[in-house]
Amino acid sequence: MMFYPQERIALFIDGANLYAAARALQFDIDYKRLLELFGSQGRLVRAFYYTALLEDQEYSPLRPLVDWLDYNGYTMVTKPTKEYTDATGRRKIKGNMDIELAIDVLEMAQYLDHIVLFSGDGDFRRLVEAVQRKAVRVTVVSTIKSTPPMVADELRRQADIFVDLFDIRARIERPHHHDARSPVLHVSE
To answer: Which of 48, 54, 79, 107 is found 20 to 30 A from 67 (Cα to Cα)?
Structure first.
């Protein structure tokens, strides 16, 4: 990883995308360790975590994680999922957080030197390009070590730095024994 100690850094975590990448690499993320790792790289201004939550459910499997993150240094950005019926008559759930993440990155860019985007979504290529034009460096964290790779090639090329989740796994992996510092999330996000 390439950071300068005086850099103002913010993390933008596409929750569903990061969860899928970690799952593809078969490990659980310890979000406390993740925050400590990137906090040690420069001046961490904010850590945003984006996720859609199922509405009208007594209990969401994401709730413990969302609550823990909210109380432990993360800025949570959530919205309710939308349920709809597709053309074939199947019920689908939609909960895309891309617009929320993109707006926050653009609003925060003027206060930052380095943005760390935890997503492999190729739709973010244009966003990365836009903040780079504001003289902000962008690191993309995802993985090419899964089958299939979890990062779009165009996003990886656009980033100033690409960090493979696999390469930092040992520094952010949740220990296998029960650890009360960070909740367990085994459900699909």
So the answer is: 107
Give yes or no for residue 92 having a pLDDT over 90.
no
Nearest to 10 by CA among 161, 186, 139: 139
- Output the pLDDT for position 81: 86
Reply yes or no on domain 8-82+93-172 having CATH 3.40.50.1010.
yes
Q: Which residues lie closer than 8 Å to 136 by C-beta, 6 or more apart?
A: 109, 112, 113, 114, 115
CA separation for the pair 48, 181 (Å, rounded): 19
pLDDT at 183: 54
Q: What is the mean pLDDT of the segment spanning 1-10?
A: 92
Rounding to the nearest 10 degrees, give the CA dihedral for residues 150, 153, 154, 159.
Answer: 80
186 band by pLDDT with thresholds 50, 70 and 90: very low
Contacts 24+ apart (CB under 8 A), 98-102: 98/14, 98/123, 98/124, 100/50, 101/12, 101/14, 101/48, 101/50, 101/77, 102/127
